[in-house]
Known about the structure:
By secondary structure, chain A is an all-beta fold. Helix content of chain A is 0%, strand content 44%. The mean pLDDT of chain B is 96.
Amino acid sequence: QSALTQPRSVDGSLGQSVTISCTGTSSDVGAYNHVSWYQQHPGKAPKLILYDVSKWPSGVPNRFSGSKSGNTASLTISGLQAEDEADYYCSSYGGRYSLVFGGGTKLTVL
Amino acid sequence: EVQLVESGGGLVKPGGSLRLSCAASGFPFSIYSMNWVRQAPGKGLQWVSSITESSSHTYYADSVQGRFTIFRDNAKNSLFLQMNSLRDDDTALYYCSVTTGNFDYWGRGTLVTVSS
């Protein structure tokens, strides 16, 4: 049940794109296509922005996209907006109803 | 509207106990597995425990196995977390959540502080 590995922080300019990686193992990210991404603003609960690697929940703009290769999943945010500044967490199904989260990435929009 | 409302947090001494509750509404509670996820101050999210729809199976993070017990009352649309032998590193905001594909909802959390 080790945490997934994410960069602690990423920066991006308004209108540009950023990619956040999420590296797990062959027991979690590599084993299942149940990778989700959450956005969390300060003092708020996490909000789902992608599930099953690349699917969008209702209401989430397609500026957010996801992919996976091997044991690493990625979140790409294109056309950065000021409101995208937040913490982002990946999570993966880890087997036996367990969830494993990444350590979180702080996105700063310059 | 889906709502998850946690309660029961507070200040407790190391070695003490607390029972967290989560009142669910706005969705068919009895057909979804439920989770507890925590977030220590300034830290990331950590899965704590999950329970299947009919309570037939429960699962725990290694860090809480043997100390915490998850259970539910489907008749009352409620989820619980009994926390015993609390330690300093259990200090966190505890979220109740349902995370099944795109059916993903979280409460606002209840704060547990373990300190002497």
